[in-house]
């Protein structure tokens, strides 16, 4: 990378960390200048507006998610083993990515669900891509014979995402230690509904 690209990447790393801590609404040119030790004019050279910065931060967070969840799962055998890997990597991706304050994209989905504009569009694009990736993984489980042929792929994706969101709620908001066990139990029950008939 060029020096300019390295600087931009460092800014976005700081932006993703801040979004994890305090949400994307906390991201301003001023707050990020203070966090990174750069001048506001230096940040404006990379991001012409707060909105442009927020969009780039959403995309950077989505990139981190892909690297932490989907790329390692692709090394696992197709079908149910890969789907299980996706689920496991998804549950702890923030810890492995150095984001101890939680998933910034999950926070963005709440912040921008009712607010039209480029930031919401970037969040929607991430979740659509996520659902498509999960649907492909479920489709491979059907192809491998791990799930029955007539199984409702969209319902499985919906339910799987619901389990992860419930995990975040119970783990991060309620601080319940049983969240991980509940999530895995729910996932195994979901998998059982898709199993081929004996």
Question: Which descriptors would you attach to this protein?
Answer:
198 residues, mainly alpha, single chain, Tetracycline Repressor, domain 2, 73% helix
Strand and helix layout:
Layout: H1 3-22, H2 29-36, H3 40-44, H4 50-73, H5 80-91, H6 93-96, H7 104-111, H8 118-143, H9 153-173, H10 179-194
Helix pairs in contact: 1-4, 1-7, 4-5, 4-8, 5-8, 5-10, 8-9, 9-10
Structural class: mainly alpha
Distance between the termini: 54 Å
The amount of beta strand, in percent, is: under 5%
Shape: elongated
CATH topology of the domain at 59-194: Tetracycline Repressor, domain 2
In round numbers, the mean pLDDT is: 94
Under CATH, the homologous superfamily of the domain at 59-194 reads: Tetracycline Repressor, domain 2
User: Nearest-angstrom radius of gyration?
Assistant: 19 Å
Could you tell me the number of beta strands? 0
Summarize the structure.
The chain has helices spanning 3-22, 29-36, 40-44, 50-73, 80-91, 93-96, 104-111, 118-143, 153-173, 179-194. The protein has 198 residues and is mainly α. The N and C termini lie far apart (54 Å).
């Amino acid at each position: 990378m060029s020096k300019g690209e390295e600087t931009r990447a460092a800014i976005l790393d700081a932006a993703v960390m801040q979004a994890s801590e305090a949400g994307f609404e906390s991201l301003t040119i001023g707050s990020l200048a203070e966090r990174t030790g750069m001048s506001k004019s230096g940040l404006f050279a990379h991001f012409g507006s707060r909105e442009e910065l927020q969009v780039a931060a959403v995309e950077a967070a989505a990139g981190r998610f892909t690297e932490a969840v989907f790329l390692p799962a692709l090394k696992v055998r197709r079908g149910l083993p890969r789907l299980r890997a996706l689920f496991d990597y998804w549950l702890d991706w923030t810890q492995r990515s150095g984001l101890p304050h939680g998933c910034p994209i999950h926070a963005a989905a709440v912040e921008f669900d009712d607010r039209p504009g480029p930031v919401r569009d970037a969040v929607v694009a991430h979740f659509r891509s996520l659902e498509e990736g999960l649907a492909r993984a479920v489709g491979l489980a059907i192809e491998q014979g791990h799930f029955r042929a007539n199984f409702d792929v969209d319902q499985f994706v919906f339910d799987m995402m619901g389990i992860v969101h419930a995990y975040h709620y119970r783990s991060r908001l309620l601080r319940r230690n049983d969240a991980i066990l509940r999530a895995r139990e729910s996932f195994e029950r979901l998998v059982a509904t898709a199993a081929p008939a004996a």
